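Preliminary data (for renewal application), flavin-adenine dinucleotide complex.
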Amino acid sequence: MPTTDHYDVIIIGTGAGGGTLAHTLAAAGKRILLLERGDFLPRETENWDPQPVFVDGRYISPETWFDADGTPFQPQVHYFVGGATKLYGAALYRLRPQDFGEITHVDGISPAWPLSYDDFEPWYSKAEWLYQVHGSHGADPTGGPWSKQYPWPAVSHEPRIQEISDTLAAAGYNPFPAPCGILLDEADRARSSCIRCTWCDGYPCLVHAKSDAETIAVRPLLTAPNVTLLVQAEVVKLDTDPTGRTVSSVVVSRRGAIERYEADIVVVSAGAANSAKLLLQSANEHHPNGLANGSDQVGRNYMFHNSKAVVALAKEPNDTVFQKTLGINDFYFDSGDHGFPFPLGNIQMVGKSNGWAMKGEEPKLTLLAPHWSLDDIARHAVDFWLTTEDLPDPDNRVTIDGQGSVHLRYTSNNDTEATRLYHELKKLLNHVGMAQHHVLDKNFYMQMNIPLAGCAHQAGTCRFGDDPATSVLDVNCKAHELDNLYVVDTSFFPSIGAVNPALTAMANAIRVGEHLIERLG
Ligand SMILES: Cc1cc2nc3c(=O)[nH]c(=O)nc-3n(C[C@H](O)[C@H](O)[C@H](O)COP(=O)(O)OP(=O)(O)OC[C@H]3O[C@@H](n4cnc5c(N)ncnc54)[C@H](O)[C@@H]3O)c2cc1C
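Predicted structure:
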């Protein structure tokens, strides 16, 4: 069994958290080993083909997880260099300042973070500049203060989306340009990698023009002398020294062999479910309930947003190519109803529907429909994504069985808020004329609740906090119970807010990276 070069830092996982952390540390010359269970996502024509992407699930791991009843399901997880960001929509939102404090929801409390928005703000700016985000700070009335404007102007609306935006503004809403991480220069298209196509949200980018963690953070390190990346390297266990206070070696299954690696600092960034899994399966005599789990908090408080994808159909065609340019936060804190004084959430656009994607996303609805009719329907579709915050519930949790398989127990909450947000969207659509120009006799919205397998926004399984009895990590994302173990991915979220999580994971990775540089000297 070969070991072991000694590194300054081992990072497990190369997604939004791990990839960004590696980028931060590498610049300071630290000797880094990146361990990634997946491989590079191949650049192939299938990247931009909805049949393999949405129907065949070509880029989804064949892994099986189990729900609370023991029923198996295939989680929509993506094991590649870059992690879930290879498939993400690159909507790179900051949390609102209030999200860092306590917020009362219909089903309970969204707890405060140990840091405030103002504490986090400098790292949000750094993450926006690293990930080349387009946007316009100040346009969203619920957004917090910023120290630096976005590096790029907001991506322009195409005519149909501009029309919707103008009409909503005239009706008193506050639509704003959605923040988006793509390598697009609209002033000089010749300098753009991005061709502004429709294959963005949910697709890998064939031309590497999406600001994902591989393209932005990991790929630039491949020639760095101080960084080693091992792919197809699944970390299966973390061993501790005889005191139980230090991770002494990282056990890796790679191409059929077991290998061990050592580092001064070990960072787990395997995604919220897999980070919890790794800690739980690293139980030993000092940590009988799992590594860093004396509090019994590892794996608990799993959140993934109470989300819906909604397709609104209008009589007039929607020929938009790049649709994710509009957001609406009018209901983020305000339900618009004094009898219901709770927040509802965020409304944004998603990638443009096409017939094949509809077939993949909603097979029961479309099973009997011939393909041509789906395409025709899709041409008239305007696509929205609704996000309501789900609350951290200790019973919503990741556990593992004797075989090391993930079991995910989850009961949804804040459903009333989610339903109200959907009704607010319907009212809003009436303003943009979809009541008069629908394809059916009445407004026709295909509504899809995101089931358990849709774990794209998973978070919360190793929350950070000041109290070791109620949190796994301290404020620097170091495990309370170990001296050299950190968790730097969406696991650390004590609450998830109602906007997409990746930018917060990236900003936090830069924050922790700067802490580690200081610690390592
Ligand atoms: C289709 C889709 C669309 C999305 N759209 C958006 C969006 O528009 N905006 C947004 O903010 N967020 C979006 N997200 C969510 C966003 O991608 C995630 O929040 C973010 O990537 C989470 O970062 P992470 O570091 O926690 O995990 P990941 O990015 O998933 O990284 C985890 C990494 O760890 C690796 N790994 C796992 N286990 C092991 C192991 N045992 N050993 C070694 N490596 C391991 C994985 O292969 C992976 O590379 C989307 C996600 C999906 C799937």
